[in-house]
Amino acid sequence: IRWHPSPRDSCKLNCDGAVSNGIASCGGVARDHNGKFIMAFSCNLGKCSVVRAELWAIFYGIKLLRERSWDGAIWVETDSAVAVKFLNQGCIRTHDSYSLVNKIVPIVGDDHEVSCSHIFREANQVADLLAKHGHSLQNRIVIFSDPPPWIHFALLADLSAVSFFRGF
């Protein structure tokens, strides 16, 4: 299992959510079709479910790319099959994530091609590091224009097409 870059003239947005000791955080990284770093973020969310943390990661990632005037297709990947299902097939009104799913849909808009798919966590290690970093933040989001040093090894592993066994 390994990370794969997006098709030409598009970007890959890897997102992740994490919950530890009842506190949720999220993070994500955007890279172009060559694997070149575009931006990343980490965020402390306070109390929420892991599914909502995953959805917040997707929301912030797309929103931040939009704010940076990204005009190509966006390939969103997350290791949450539930988040992917909600975004691709909808979410029932009674689910606690319904309003958040409906917050994501308008920012996708009609202008850009945005797809959302599931990947195994072994191929989502950079986003995982960013999500876990969010726990150290005090209820705020940090945006990285350059890769922080603590994700360099994981970025290099992705660019080098390092494969991992399931359960690594």
Automatic annotation (TrEMBL):
<dbReference type="InterPro" id="IPR036397">
    <property type="entry name" value="RNaseH_sf"/>
</dbReference>
<dbReference type="GO" id="GO:0004523">
    <property type="term" value="F:RNA-DNA hybrid ribonuclease activity"/>
</dbReference>
<dbReference type="InterPro" id="IPR012337">
    <property type="entry name" value="RNaseH-like_sf"/>
</dbReference>
<dbReference type="Pfam" id="PF13456">
    <property type="entry name" value="RVT_3"/>
</dbReference>
<dbReference type="GO" id="GO:0003676">
    <property type="term" value="F:nucleic acid binding"/>
</dbReference>
<dbReference type="InterPro" id="IPR002156">
    <property type="entry name" value="RNaseH_domain"/>
</dbReference>
<dbReference type="InterPro" id="IPR053151">
    <property type="entry name" value="RNase_H-like"/>
</dbReference>
<protein>
    <submittedName>
        <fullName>Ribonuclease H protein At1g65750 family</fullName>
    </submittedName>
</protein>
<feature type="domain" description="RNase H type-1">
    <location>
        <begin position="14"/>
        <end position="133"/>
    </location>
</feature>
<dbReference type="InterPro" id="IPR044730">
    <property type="entry name" value="RNase_H-like_dom_plant"/>
</dbReference>
